[in-house]
Design brief:
The structure holds two protein chains of two kinds. Chain A is an all-alpha fold. Chain A has helices spanning 2-13, 37-49, 66-87. Chain A has one domain (2-87): ACP-like (Non-ribosomal Peptide Synthetase Peptidyl Carrier Protein, Chain A, Orthogonal Bundle), CATH 1.10.1200. Chain A contains three helices and no strands. Chain B folds into three domains: 2-114, Butyryl-Coa Dehydrogenase, subunit A, domain 1 (Orthogonal Bundle), CATH 1.10.540.10; 120-221, Butyryl-CoA Dehydrogenase, subunit A, domain 2, CATH 2.40.110; 226-375, Up-down Bundle (Butyryl-CoA Dehydrogenase, subunit A, domain 3), CATH 1.20.140.10. Classes of the chains: A mainly alpha, B alpha+beta.
């Protein structure tokens, strides 16, 4: 999980200098959210972690902090791994 | 471009080109003059799979890649910008549903849209809200399992004939998007005529007077109307418009190549006159540069790269500026003939202007490009 959080922080840190992004920082309050941000964030998550964000997960609460994003990703990966184990 | 296209892409381009040359080019002038195009043409585009070209095959789409979608829009832009813009509108509505809709919505609406059975429209702009979409005035109020929508939309492409509208509103200040059927009581359309360009797009003003919409018609979650639904759909809208600009620029080049070969002044075909050659070379390079930016954007889209929205923005911004320069030169090369209706360049010139306004004005894109470049890693040291 910490590896996931680190990768998310690295992506977000590209958008802001001189401010450390913490796992519980509210992303919307950091001044990095712009009109392309959500599309870029979703694309980053999907490409970096090999998952697809579904309708049910496109909730603003899932993208509020690094912790929230990491939890979303971790749950997706675990449920997909669980499904694969079930099928095999 | 030949060197960059695979045999499959070349084959697709030939198919698109043939459709455009047969169905659109011979009729473009008429459509433009009459400010109308037959809905049967939209149905034909649906039959060929062009309305849902990049929609996954599991929903009945062709599942084409980003470059193929780009080539499709370039060819349609070359044929007639109005028809290319229809592809843009369909793309935006479909992308909203694909990205933000639930499975039931995807399975119900997408096949009907991509077949052309439903004509769609994208309802974002309002009389008092253009670039400043956060100041949207259309409101939605929840009552039971319905929402009551009240407001007005303006400059809505295909409003005159659309059977389904994607409408953006606010519910207690939270942005939200709905699918609204034309038959909804309280929905009225007033046609818009006399446009500068894209005249055959059958625009209208759409008013919603106490329209009751089932909550099942919300696309995306409450509060994500701008951040998700509009963002994803405008992203693809910019992409297809960027390629459409390349096509329109190519149409200008083709018209000028033909004209300069036959038009004689001072005893020579004007293609031999140096100042005409200067204009032609500037146009050739300008169109090629725009195409390369579109191509780069297509590569990033295909790779689902997080920088693709930024590069798409760049491609649209450059493409729309390019086509205004190129269309201006095209009219200048044609002289007085360029101002009359016998040659298509006057239509290209009018359509080009619209490209700097739709799917985000060039001024908004200048702000977005500069802000994104300085804030994020967008575009830095990449290309």
């Amino acid at each position: 999980m910490e590896n996931i959080k680190q990768r998310i922080r690295q992506f977000l840190q590209r958008s802001i200098r001189n401010v450390d992004i913490h796992n519980d920082s509210v992303i919307a309050d950091l001044g990095i959210v712009h009109s392309l941000f959500m599309v870029q964030l979703v694309l980053f998550i999907e490409k970096e972690f090999g998952i697809e964000i579904d309708y049910d997960e496109l909730d603003l609460a899932n993208f509020r902090t690094v912790n929230d994003i990491a939890a979303l990703i971790s749950n997706k990966i675990n449920s997909e791994n669980g499904l694969q184990r079930k099928l095999s | 471009m030949e060197i960059l296209l695979s045999p499959q892409h070349q084959k697709l381009r030939e198919e698109f080109r043939q459709f455009v040359d047969e169905e659109i080019v011979p009729n473009a002038g008429k459509f433009d003059k009459e400010e109308n195009m037959p809905v049967e043409l939209i149905k034909k585009m649906g039959d060929k799979g062009y309305l849902g070209a990049n929609v996954p095959t599991k929903y009945g789409g062709k599942g084409l890649d980003a470059l193929s979608l780009g080539i499709l829009n370039e060819e349609f832009g070359r044929g007639y910008s109005s028809t290319q813009n229809i592809l843009t509108v369909y793309g935006m509505v479909l992308q909203a549903i694909l990205r933000c809709g639930n499975n039931q919505q995807k399975e119900y609406w997408i096949p009907k849209i991509i077949s052309g059975e439903l004509i769609v429209a994208y309802g974002l702009t309002e009389p008092n809200t253009g670039s400043d979409i956060k100041s949207l005035e259309t409101v939605a109020s929840k009552i039971g399992d319905e929402y009551i929508i009240q407001g007005e939309k303006m400059w809505i492409t295909l409003a005159q004939v659309a059977s389904l509208f994607l409408v953006f509103a606010k519910e207690k200040g939270e942005p939200v998007a709905f699918l609204v059927e034309r038959k909804t009581p309280g929905l009225q359309v007033e046609p818009t005529f006399g446009l500068l360009g894209l005249r055959a797009n059958m625009l209208g003003k759409v008013s919603f007077d106490q329209c009751r919409i089932p909550e099942d018609n919300i696309i995306g979650k409450m509060g994500t109307g701008f951040s998700h639904v509009a963002s994803f759909s405008l992203d693809i809208g910019r992409y297809t418009t960027a390629w459409g600009c390349v096509g329109l620029g190519q149409a200008c080049l083709d018209a000028c190549r033909k004209y300069t070969e036959t038009r004689k002044q001072f005893g020579d075909a004007i293609k031999k006159h140096q100042l005409i050659q200067k204009k032609m070379s500037e146009m050739i390079v300008d169109v090629r540069a725009a195409r390369q930016l579109c191509f780069y954007s297509s590569c990033l889209r295909e790779a689902c790269d997080p920088e693709s929205p930024f590069e798409t923005l760049v491609a649209k911004y450059y493409g729309s500026a390019m086509v205004n320069r190129v269309a201006g030169n095209a009219v200048q090369i044609h002289g007085a003939n360029g101002c009359g209706s016998e040659y298509p360049v006057q239509r290209y010139y009018r359509d080009a202007k619209i490209m700097e306004i739709i799917e985000g004005t060039s001024q908004m894109h200048e702000i977005m490009i500069a802000n994104n470049y300085s804030k994020s890693g967008c575009g830095k040291d990449r290309f």
